[in-house]
Design goal:
Layout lengths: L1 E5 L6 E5 L7 H6 L6 E7 L3 H14 L3 E7 L8 H13 L7 E6 L1 H13 L6 E5 L2 H7 L4 E6 L2 E8 L4 E4 L9 H18 L1 H15 L3 H21 L14 H10 L7 H18 L5 H13 L11 H10 L8 E8 L2 E7 L1 H11 L4
Parallel strand pairs: 2-9, 3-4, 3-5, 5-6, 6-9
Antiparallel strand pairs: 1-2, 7-8, 10-11
Helix pairs in contact: 3-4, 5-6, 5-8, 6-7, 6-8, 6-10, 7-8, 9-10, 9-12, 10-11, 10-13, 12-13
The protein binds nicotinamide-adenine-dinucleotide and zinc ion.
């Protein structure tokens, strides 16, 4: 078993990674200071695949196990679903000594985590992420939350889990497009902080996409270490944590313009990373070798790198409406070289000129 420690003083926790780890759920959770009352929150797709094993192992170690099955889909990541979770917890006689397990991808994890953060002002929760994206990204770092009609992830809390249990074997039932979505975030980690890891990906990406055991375990562990490192340095996103948004500003615009139904989040981020590397080149912060390397690796992974055909105005308007932007413009994460990025404020005019020239938008 490999372990990454997220070091946040009294809120520190471990991320355990191993093939077949779902079988050890009971043993691992029983080492935590949690009481016997526990609710597994999962969804309709994951329940038939992995609920039984987790439930059986927990019962075997003496837990009193409840189950909440949510509908599947980002469209259910809202306050209605959270209210339903609260109501079910109340019906199960949950109190502040009970805890929650999130068994699923980022959607389940974000909602189960937010419910845990707010129910009785906070009860313990454990993440068992089942998509590559949730294993390398959303289950680590303690961001929880839901969407509002006005935008994604607008309501939430920073709330750390007590433990993250990663079983890479569950990725075998994941759709290939979902796997690639996770790969996009993995590539992002190389670009923002670790040139050596990026080189490893250049050499081993085919093995990763084929889910070779050793390769995927190494990739998950390294990605979790990078995210854990960033989180411990900047838990509340005042500085370095914003580097994780590399490729995301343009990526979000792509998601919004295509109504969230043409690309997975990871695909939109891949497009966003390719675009921002070209803009970084245009502003002379980086050179063409770096953007070419990034684009080549994305393409080798089967990820898209071309902006969908919307007008320059559509892109700029969408980015300027982003609720998370600054007053004077947009704080963008730009590339200096593979393994090094930085934050810079760009006005709408600067962005417009660059996107027109470097990305041929009309
Ligand atoms: N909290 C954070 O820091 C953070 C970071 C990144 C993304 N997110 C959030 O994560 C969400 C996206 O997460 P996601 O990409 O995991 O999507 P997801 O949770 O929607 O999962 C994708 C699909 O795969 C299915 N699935 C999950 N595991 C499976 C498995 N092992 N086998 C077969 N099918 C499986 C799911 O039911 C779903 O249909 C978004 O809501 C995003 O906002 C949060
Ligand atoms: Zn992302």
């Amino acid at each position: 078993m490999q372990t990454v420690k997220v070091d946040l003083k009294d809120r520190s926790y471990n991320i355990h990674i191993e093939n077949g780890l779902l079988n050890k759920t009971g043993d691992l959770i029983s080492t935590l200071p949690v009481r016997k009352n526990i609710a597994i929150i999962t969804n309709k797709t994951i329940a038939p695949l992995y609920l039984d094993i987790v439930k059986t192992k927990l019962k075997k170690t003496g837990f009193n196990v409840h189950v909440i099955i949510l509908p599947d889909g980002e469209e259910h990541k809202n306050l209605n679903t959270i209210t339903n979770i609260y109501n079910e917890l109340i019906m199960m006689d949950f109190d502040r000594n009970s805890s929650i397990i999130a068994l699923g991808g980022g959607v389940v994890g974000d909602m189960a985590g937010f419910a845990a953060a707010t129910f009785f002002r906070g009860i313990p929760y454990i993440q068992i992420p089942t998509t590559l994206l949730s294993q390398v990204d959303s289950s680590v770092g303690g961001k929880t939350g839901v969407n509002l009609p006005g935008g994604k992830n607008l309501v939430g809390a920073f709330y750390q889990p007590k433990l993250v249990i990663i079983d890479p074997e569950v990725l075998k039932t994941l759709q290939i497009t979902e796997l690639r979505a996770g790969i996009a975030e993995v590539i992002k980690y190389g670009v923002i902080l670790n040139n050596e890891f990026f080189k490893y990906l250049e050499l081993n990406i085919d093995q990763a996409v084929k889910l070779d055991d050793e390769t995927i375990a190494y990739i998950i562990k390294t990605s979790c270490s990078i995210k854990a490192d960033i989180t411990t340095q900047d838990e509340k996103e005042k500085g370095i944590r914003s580097f994780l948004n590399f490729g995301h500003t343009i990526g979000h615009a792509v998601e919004t313009l295509t109504n969230y139904n043409e690309f997975t989040h990871g695909e939109a981020v891949a497009i966003g990373m390719a675009a921002i590397s070209k803009l970084s080149e245009f502003w002379r912060f980086t050179d063409i070798e770096n953007s070419n390397r990034l684009i080549a690796l994305l393409q080798k992974s089967g990820l898209p790198t071309e902006l969908p055909a919307f007008s320059l105005n559509d892109y700029i308007d969408t980015m300027m409406k982003d609720k998370k932007r600054a007053e004077a413009g947009i704080n963008m994460v730009l590339m200096k070289q593979i393994g090094e990025v930085f934050l810079k404020l760009k006005t709408a005019d600067e962005l417009s000129l660059a996107m027109q020239t470097a990305l041929n938008l009309k």
